[in-house]
Inverse folding.
């Protein structure tokens, strides 16, 4: 039984060695060793619980601040594709508030 | 002559006894976020933008909190479960990007401009903590599956067994893929022009 356990441990070490080897090679090729959110210019704040609703609301608020709304995205695509028929239909739906 | 019992009356081994389910209360959730949150960000950020990666972290942990009753019984298995949720969120975001060619093109342009700026200035922004230009070029030439495996293998919170579980494959298959991926990035680094 202990022999099996030893072999299992050796296999686990071998599996981890493969992962470590990939990480080592990646660092040698110029990948960052351990990039953090801060190194990408972003901080991830711990969620304040009460709170799934708060987190969702905060996430949506942040997203809407930096992205045009889905409607404007769609409009931009239609314009870029020059699809006048679709654009007209979309505009009609939008002005009707649907 | 006394009858022999059909089964030996030995106590069940400890390992076979059912685990007591560990509850994910608020404190446990905060600890999980602190330990796995940065890894979820890292899992997403090379394939998305930093802001989108932050959204993936928020969305993932929102799901984790909402579905905390479905977390595995043993807390050592929670990181793999969380990364599995993040994997789905990243896939959703990537497919959303493919449906928004204009926005994606603008994102690509943004990246290009940043790299041009770095080249022009002769130094790379925050190079010691962020990938070099050469490595970003290697990463860009990997397939979607290779990128996902690369990112997964870099998560400190996962063991090889966890990584295999996230991808739904055996540990042997997982480590074989990792080994092939290592050879692939080496071969890409030897061909920086990128014929593929």
């Amino acid at each position: 039984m202990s022999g099996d356990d030893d072999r299992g441990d050796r296999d686990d070490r071998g599996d981890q060695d493969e992962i470590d080897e990939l990480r080592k090679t990646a660092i040698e090729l110029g990948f960052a060793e351990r990039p953090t959110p801060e190194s990408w210019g972003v901080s991830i704040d711990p969620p304040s619980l009460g709170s799934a609703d708060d987190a969702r609301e905060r996430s949506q608020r942040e997203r809407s601040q930096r992205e045009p709304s889905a409607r404007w995205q769609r409009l931009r695509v239609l314009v870029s594709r020059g699809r006048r028929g679709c654009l007209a239909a979309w505009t009609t739906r939008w002005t009707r508030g649907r | 002559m006394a009858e022999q019992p059909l089964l030996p009356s030995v106590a069940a081994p400890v390992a076979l006894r059912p685990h007591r389910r560990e509850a994910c209360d608020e404190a446990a959730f905060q600890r999980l976020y602190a330990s796995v949150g940065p890894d979820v960000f890292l899992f997403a950020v090379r394939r998305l933008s930093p802001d989108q990666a932050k959204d993936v972290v928020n969305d993932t942990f929102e799901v984790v909190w909402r579905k905390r009753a479905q977390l595995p019984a043993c807390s050592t298995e929670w990181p793999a479960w969380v990364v599995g949720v993040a994997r789905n969120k990243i896939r959703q975001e990537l497919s959303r990007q493919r449906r928004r060619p204009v926005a994606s093109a603008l994102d690509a342009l943004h990246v290009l401009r940043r790299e041009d700026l770095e080249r022009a200035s002769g130094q790379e922004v925050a190079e010691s903590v962020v990938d070099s230009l050469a490595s970003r070029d290697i990463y860009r030439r990997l397939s979607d599956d290779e990128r996902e495996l690369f990112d997964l293998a870099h998560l400190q919170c996962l063991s090889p067994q966890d990584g295999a579980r996230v991808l739904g494959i055996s540990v042997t298959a997982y480590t074989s893929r990792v080994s092939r991926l290592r050879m692939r990035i080496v071969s890409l680094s030897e061909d920086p022009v990128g014929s593929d």
